[in-house]
Amino acid sequence: MRGLTTSPPRVDLQEIFCSWLGSLLGIGVVAWGHYVFFEGTTLALLIGSFGASGVLIYGATKSPLARPRNLIGGHLISAVIRLNKLILCGPWVWLATTLAVSLSIAAMHATKTLHPPGGATVLIPVIGGPKIQQLGYLYVLLPVASGILIMLAVALIINNLAPNRRYPEFWF
Asked: Are 51 and 25 in contact (CB under 8 A)?
């Protein structure tokens, strides 16, 4: 049970700072918008899976899972699948959840948009409580599409400020 390679080296301080700044601004803008514009309403702009997306697009910029295609496609495909399964499975939430996660993984693979936080995006309409559940198909646009587009815009700016960083490594 020994690995075949050695542990990767630590990243330098510039890499740490850029990852920190990107996540601070990306999640910060989405969270600010959520609490300023949607506090006290049934609308939302901030969901838990954005935290994991932030790790990828600000901290693991070279990963194929962090490509803009994966970020956008993975979340949107998962959001649509989740809502369709909720409607089709009715009172059997356990079945809707099971089918939604497995189908979203298959769909992300088939479309070359595998993005692990999409696995959380499919679960949020069930475990997110009434506020998220009341959004229905609006969930795809707000918070999912709007939040990931804000985070992507920040990633495109911040990740390209340092001379040794480039994001995205490739678009498709």
From this structure: no
pLDDT tens figures, 49-88: 999 999 999 999 999 999 999 999 999 999 998 777 766 7
Burial per residue of 44-81, b for 16 or more beta-carbon CB atoms within 10 angstroms, e otherwise: bbbbebbebbbebbbbebeeebbbbbbbbbbbbbbbbb
Portion of the chain with pLDDT greater than 90, in percent: 67
Count CB neighbours of 23 within 10 A. Answer: 21
User: Is the dihedral angle over the CA atoms 12, 154, 151, 170 positive or is it negative?
Assistant: negative
Q: What is the 3-state secondary structure (H, E, C) of 111-134?
A: CCCCCCHHHHHCCHHHHCCHHHHC
CA distance 84 to 47: 19
Q: Which of 59, 125, 117 is nearest to 87 (CA)?
A: 125
The 10s digit of each residue's pLDDT in 111-124 is 999 999 999 999 88
Q: What is the C-alpha to C-alpha distance for residues 110 and 91, in angstroms, rounded to an integer? A: 29
Nearest to 22 by CA among 172, 156, 168, 118: 156
Integer Cα distance of 167 and 172 in angstroms: 12
pTM of the model: 0.92
Amino acid identity at 63: S
